[in-house]
Amino acid sequence: MKKLLPALSLILFLSFVTSGLYIFGLPPFQSGGPFFPAAPQNPQTEQGTQKVERNKTYTEHISRGALLEQNGYYSLAIAEYEAASKLDLTNPEPFVKIGRIHLLNHEYDAAVANFQQANKLAPNNTDTLVYLGRSYLGNRQIDEAKNLFANLNADSQTAKYYQGIIAAFSGEYDKSKDLLKKAVEMGGSDDITKKAQNYLNAFNEFNFNQGGEPIHLKALLARSFNQTGEYQLAIPLLFDVIKAQKDYRDAWVLLGYAYLSIDKYQDALESLNQAKNLDPQKPETYYFLGLTYYDLNNLPLAAANLELAKKNGFQPVIQINQKLAEIYLQLKDYNKSAQNYENVLAINDQDINYYIRPIWLYTEKTNQPDKALSLAEKAYLKHPNEAMSYNLLAWAQISAGQLDQAEKNLQTGINIDPQLEAIYLNFGLLNEKKGNTSQALTYYQKAHDMGKGNSISASATERYTNLVAKVKGVDPNTLKANVLNAQ
């Protein structure tokens, strides 16, 4: 699930954005004119000669695909990897990369096909085989996975781990415990060790409650499958549990979480609503309902359920505050968004960048410069030696009309870190407020160039365009996109 914030671990993601919290589509810097010299023209272009683009090499396709994949453009990344595969028919690398994307997105048939092809081109590569085995498990091809991991290197911690969880799924509990203990003892990968211990803890928890029903052990193992990302193995175990005991509330919650994690949102809703009917107070049920509605783009219901989760005591509450802040921002309820971001700061203010969004909301969306200034002063007191602290303080001071103080703080910030592009953006804003149009545009240009396409660059572009439009007395949308944005 691409948007899920797992309740199993704290994920706090706050975007490092100073002035534009969403990505604007880079409308124009205008080349030439009174502020910047026109870009030199190619004589051949002026004569109408068309430039013929050369074909990309294998390495270029792979590099381009990796960049697209890193930024979440998976279909475009796959297209680049496929193009690379046609340029080197014996290289398994593109198929491994394509398979990993499909595995990440729970597209298990496609993942299996690509890893099988990679294995044909370079047989018995351990990493490829592990990916193939994981894809088999995701596709519930249990026998194929079992045979594959049984034939891996006997000294492999990874092989022992997967053999152990397959045995747990199959009900061979003593064999599972033995294999998982060996995986822990062998060591090698901290991640594998931690996951193996998770299942051993589930067995120990069941043994501690002597006289427990077998379905309780299945529920505990399903919880471990969820916690280690093996959602497709959790689901059939939970079916067994619910078939034996239909009012097993936690099994319904675990089933809803598993479906949510593999993007089966309607199935998740049905399971979680069953859990809610059995217990209308359990906060985890409302939390996962909130995330499900969020992924279904029903933001009002997402917010309502997350508020109920918070009211009923969900922990860690910082996750709910963060998610609610994002949802209210999308709903344009800026006051509630800012308040939830401040709730996050009340729990964790160790990173100066956590202050950016609420200050942005107070300065740019709610017109509350006093609140922005108060928050910026807290950021400065907490992080007195960081350039961003001076930048945020100056930003708030500009909003409050304290331009001289803002200029001093921006200068201090730039002395600490001359590479912080956000400072140049606010220098541009400061000069715009002072009526120094040419200087403002120069700073916006610099922020744009330093940002190299990030959100600071986008905000600089927007401010630059609006200011040029204001000077010319035209609609910003009528300005032509400049060559800078095409490069």
Any overview of this molecule?
The protein has 26 helices and no strands. The relative contact order is 0.09. The model is unreliable at 2-49 and 482-487 (pLDDT under 50). Helices cover 69% and strands 0% of the residues. It has helices at residues 43-46, 58-70, 74-87, 93-104, 108-121, 126-138, 142-150, 157-169, 173-186, 190-208, 214-227, 231-244, 249-261, 265-278, 283-295, 299-311, 317-330, 334-347, 356-365, 369-382, 387-399, 403-416, 421-434, 437-451, 455-472, 483-486. The protein has a domain at 25-37 and 334-487: Serine Threonine Protein Phosphatase 5, Tetratricopeptide repeat (Alpha Horseshoe), CATH 1.25.40. The longest helix is centred in the middle third of the chain and has 19 residues, at 190-208. Helix 12 packs antiparallel against helix 13, helix 20 (369-382) packs antiparallel against helix 21 (387-399) and helix 23 runs antiparallel to helix 24. By secondary structure, it is mainly alpha-helical.
Distance between the termini: 34 Å
Strand fraction: under 5%
The main β sheet shows up as: none
Based on secondary structure, the structural category is mainly alpha
**What is the CATH superfamily of the domain at 25-37 and 334-487?**
Tetratricopeptide repeat domain
Number of strands: 0
Shape: globular
Query: Secondary-structure element sequence?
Result: HHHHHHHHHHHHHHHHHHHHHHHHHH
What number is the mean pLDDT?
87
Q: What is the CA-based Rg, rounded?
A: 27 Å
